[in-house]
Amino acid sequence: MSDIADRVKKIVVEHLGVDEEKVTESASFIDDLGADSLDTVELVMAFEEEFGIEIPDDAAETIQTFGDAVKFIQGAV
Amino acid sequence: MFDLSGKKALVTGASGGIGGAVAQALHAAGATLVLSGTREAPLRELAATLGERVHVVTADLGNAEAVEALPKAAAEAAGGVDILVNNAGITRDNLFMRMSDEEWAQVLEVNLTSSFRLCRAVLRGMMKARWGRIVNIGSVVGATGNPGQGNYAAAKAGLVGMSKSLAYEVASRGITVNCVSPGFIETAMTEKLNEEQKGRILAQIPAGRMGSASEIAAAVLFLTSPEAGYITGATLHVNGGMAMI
């Protein structure tokens, strides 16, 4: 697994308080990991800070799963 | 009780009577302040009387760009914003039938839209800190209406609905959002009233007197305190019994 994926996973695990093995590529933050809509906003904020990038709102809306997040960040850094 | 040591508070409209009293109360409780207003001189004067832990950032809240810049400047000056008091407000009174679009828009822009923008901007830091206090200064007329103040009453009632909605969204993050709604308060604005006008107003107030700015400030201080952490989405009316709602 890439370094980016590891860092994203760490944020997700810490923020949502879920087990690491649940954070699979297709895991949906809301449906599978128990996030509410405010959690997803906070996750995006945390990603922005961790990677020093800006994630616009329309892009943030497309980030539904752990895999989406990794893919977006890999393209943005 | 009500210790705000280490907290950073942004107070808009701090050059006015109520804003100045709020600033004094929060400062006395230990908060670091950012005073904001359109006129720099009275803000500097207030800052000088308060002493340390005070920053001044001027901003015209009728200007969208200035509103965007204010929270950033405040956070830079003080090191963050834990407490936001949206106190700035203007009136452009007119009879409804004569009210211009401009009078309507100006009052909504400064009294409601700027509060929305400032709330939105400070939330990020508050969510990260898992602590925040927002107090929006409403008005009794937002609940009762007042002839000649359709725009002002709409904006003040709007603040209440906005505060409640935001309170829902961020309650789980330790952020509270409340309103303090003053009745008739002794300020430069009410000093202009003549004796007859004052008499008519006083007849409607069971307490038999106007309130003081420090009585509004005390309510704001309470709602910003750690002790008020379980109060959110509330409106605290401070009006001498003028409207018991």
Q: How large a portion of the residues of chain B is in β-strands, by DSSP E? A: 15-25%
Helix content of chain A: 55-70%
Tell me the major beta sheet of chain B. Answer: 7 strands, parallel
Question: Which regions of chain A contain 5 or more consecutive residues with pLDDT less than 50?
Answer: none
**Overall form of chain B:** globular
Mean pLDDT across every amino acid position of chain B? 96
What is the percentage of strand-forming residues of chain A? Answer: under 5%
- Assign the CATH class of chain B: Alpha Beta
Can you tell me the CATH topology of chain B? Rossmann fold
Number of helices of chain B: 9
What integer is the average pLDDT of chain A?
94
Could you say which overall geometry of chain A the principal axes of the C-alpha atoms support?
globular
Number of domains of chain A: 1
State the distance separating the first and last CA atoms of chain A.
17 Å
Secondary-structure element order of chain B, as H and E? EHEHEHEHEHHEHHHE
Q: Could you write a compact summary of the structure shown?
A:
Chain A: Belongs to the acyl carrier protein (ACP) family. Chain A has 77 residues and is an all-alpha fold.
Produce the secondary structure layout:
The complex is a heterodimer of chains A (77) and B (245).
Chain A: H1 3-16, H2 37-51, H3 57-62, H4 66-76
Chain B: E1 8-11, H1 17-28, E2 32-37, H2 40-50, E3 54-58, H3 64-78, E4 83-86, H4 101-129, E5 132-137, H5 140-144, H6 150-170, E6 175-182, H7 188-191, H8 195-203, H9 213-224, E7 235-238
Parallel strand pairs in B: 1-2, 1-4, 2-3, 4-5, 5-6, 6-7
Helix pairs in contact in B: 1-9, 3-4, 4-6
